[in-house]
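User: Stage 0 sporulation protein A homolog. Structure?
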Amino acid sequence: MAHILIVEDEKSISDLIAMNLSLVGHTSEQAYGGNEAIESLKRSSFSLIIMDIMLPEMDGFALIQHVPENTPVIFLTAMGNLSDRVRGLKLGADDYIVKPFETVELLARIEAVLRRTHRSLSLFSLDDTVVNLESRVVTVNGSEIELTLREYELLEILIKNKNIALSREKLLKMAWEYDYFGETRTVDVHIQKLRKKLNWENRIRTVYKMGYRLEVDR
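Assistant: Predicted structure:
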């Protein structure tokens, strides 16, 4: 997947981001200040940088000037004023997220930036199932499987959040969008169909009293 630099001076937040990136298959490095981030940029190349603005030694607005060209940046900060957002985007940030944030949303925004900048893998393979995330073609044992639009949307959400437990309400909101007011039972029905069509009875796990998780070997 992607190799991501996390520039965040609050260790608990940095560790939380790193843990969740690892769960969905990304690798990461952590820097806790501007100077340390610059050293990381000199030493390694990254698919994406997640950067706070209020940092020791050098703020994010100054640090972004040291980011190599064509390396996408997401500002993740408590600075939520419109003027700060506009400034960050004008300086070249690909996205701007205000704290506090939801992990699922952050992962979705990361995936969107990686896909937009062509830095994310387009194929996902698990057991005998291969999902092409660009063409939306799904095959099992080499044979194409027909999925409905909602089945595919649900599948893609599970893939992008693999190894993370998602509530039925969260899945309903993400796959059926905000204006859908159906019962969460519809999620269960679609999950059962995905399990059967993809032979993933032991991969899409039920999380007791919560929802579901796509279990992938790390």
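Residues 103-116 form the longest helix (14 residues). The mean pLDDT is 90.
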